[in-house]
Specification:
alpha+beta; 7-stranded mixed beta barrel; two-stranded antiparallel sheet
């Protein structure tokens, strides 16, 4: 029996890869945080990370707080990211969806540009809320980059349609 085969299975299991998620908005870094790479199939990158902002963020319809765990799905060919939000105990809070330019993963950094539009979907799927359309309008993106603004608007419409009809679970499977 070789030394390698005598090792416990857990010791031979591949280690998970860490990376940094870098979220920018209007050309400025909004937040950077470490995340665990869960999956990268070439089109979609899935990472897991604890709530990265300091303290509690209460939106009125959901609270993000220390201990919450985000499983975040970013696409290289789609204009959105979907973040499944769970309590530290595993209870599903819902899905927070960011409208973004397609993600780029290079040198251990997952770069994502937030385009202001967001969508919240409650855990039971009955509450779907479009967010920050006023910020998107005020951002000037439609004037600076009408093609990107159109892609962002279509992405929000697509996510809302999915959330209200099929739900988001098939998209994330």
């Amino acid at each position: 029996m070789s030394a390698a085969s005598a090792e416990p299975r857990a010791a031979r299991a591949p280690r998970s890869k860490g990376l940094v998620v870098a979220l920018t908005k209007a050309g400025r870094t909004k937040i950077r945080y470490p995340a665990e790479l869960v999956r990268d199939d070439g089109a979609r990158v899935t990472v897991r990370a604890p709530w990265a902002a300091p303290g509690v963020r209460d939106f009125g319809f959901v609270r993000f707080e220390p201990g919450d765990v985000f499983t975040e799905h970013y696409w290289r060919d789609r204009w959105f990211a979907v973040k499944e939000v769970r309590t530290g105990g595993g209870e599903l809070k819902g899905w927070y969806c960011d409208i973004t330019r397609p993600a780029v993963l290079a040198n251990g950094v997952l770069s994502v540009e937030d385009l202001d539009l967001d969508l919240w979907v409650s855990a039971d799927g009955t509450f779907v809320l479009r967010l920050d359309e006023d910020e998107f309008g005020a951002s000037g993106l439609a004037e600076r980059d009408p093609e990107a603004a159109g892609s962002a608007s279509r992405a929000l419409d697509e996510l809302e349609r999915l959330a209200r009809t099929e739900g988001l679970t098939d998209l994330l499977a």
